[in-house]
Specification:
It is a multi-pass membrane protein. It is found in: Cell membrane. This is Neuromedin-U receptor 1. InterPro entries: GPCR_Rhodpsn (IPR000276), GPCR_Rhodpsn_7TM (IPR017452), NeuromedU_rcpt (IPR005390), NeuromedU_rcpt_1 (IPR005391). The protein has 425 residues and is mainly α. It has a single domain, classed as Rhopdopsin 7-helix transmembrane proteins (Up-down Bundle). It is built from 13 helices and four strands. The strands form two sheets. It has a two-stranded antiparallel sheet. A two-stranded antiparallel ribbon has the order 2-3. α4 runs parallel beside α7. The chain is elongated, with a radius of gyration of 26 Å. It starts with 9 loop residues before the first helix and ends in an 8-residue tail after the last helix.
Amino acid sequence: MYPYTNCTSLAPLRDYLARLEAEVLCNHSHVDPEDMTLTEDELRDKYLGPRRSSFFVPVCTTYLLIFVVGAVGNTLTCLVILRHKFMRTPTNYYLFSLAVSDLLVLLLGMPLELYDMWSNYPFLLGAGGCYFKTLLFEAVCFASILNVTALSVERYIAVVHPLKAKYVVTRNHAKRVIGAIWVLSVLCSIPNTSLHGIRPLYVPGRGVVPDSAICMVVKPLVLYNLIIQITTILFFFLPMGTLSILYLLIGLQLRKEKMLQSLEAKAGRDSDYHHVRAQQKKVRRRQVTKMLFVLVVVFGICWAPFHTDRLVWSFVSNWTGNMHEMFQYVHIISGVFFYLSSATNPILYNLMSTRFREMFKEVMCHQHLQRLGSRKYSPSVTRVTTRSTVCEHVPSGNGLPLANLEEYETDREGERSNEHAAVFD
């Protein structure tokens, strides 16, 4: 996530990098007499900072809580979309891609960061592990914001240009866009990844210090700072500005539709069956848009500290003691919000989408039924058991709540012709 994960090591490492660059430019190495009397542990502590972060225990506790919520929630999201064909809409494909991105961060990125906080050096995974770690964080960062942007563009077309959406916003188109998003994210991650590598601590007059290898920026910091600034503009400020404009236009369109609906109601033209069905679809569409708008707002709030952290690191060159102390807390807060963004989406689906909430219950109850079947319960006992627990309101065989079965049957034809509509209500 950052060039150096252990926040208590940032200032020593920055000074060490600055000294290395100065030595390369001046073509000589300055020998500090004090270094000749220090032990290897003291040298590592002086130039690389403490081996273990002083924030490890509270951060680890917070991360583990986020991990449990995020891993379970995003796994349920993927299972719901994979197991139910009617949930495979263009909108939900983007949500599936976003869930995969969140799972990669939680299952692969978080353990690597926690290990770095536990033992900042030596880095044991070699150059390949260093490249993988950097590429992973960069790629999922880019893929997440691009998925949210593509999802919002799809919502804009569905709301503002509904006729065009029938031909433009399709499942195949969503698949192609998602594939392009991941390819582009990986390609854009290569420049920053290429700047990283394994570097042991070299002290003039003492040579290479054992057990000091660390995954860090090995190329000039000016290149790293430039890449961070460019990617922050391209993959945060520009997308968030675009999202703001899109949802402003969507809000104006929905407001216009609501005013027209009120005028029609006053004119007494709201009793026709087809008119009622059309109004119900508009209500569901507004609910979907509202949920996605909240998702975008939460996404921006969670990612703003992360990009603030990176920009501060790239712009500040002379660190004072007070600046370093304040930046430690910024670094910790940005990390918590970074991972929190991977756990909030399933919570939003559950709170704001009736059908996702019912599908989550169905998936959990399906696992419960499988465990009961493995214990060789009879079908009658199973029905009694599940009806008395969380499965009381399990969807029927087609995956919909029993109370909404008739509504689903009447909507099936409309959903075939209007594929872009997300399965929320």
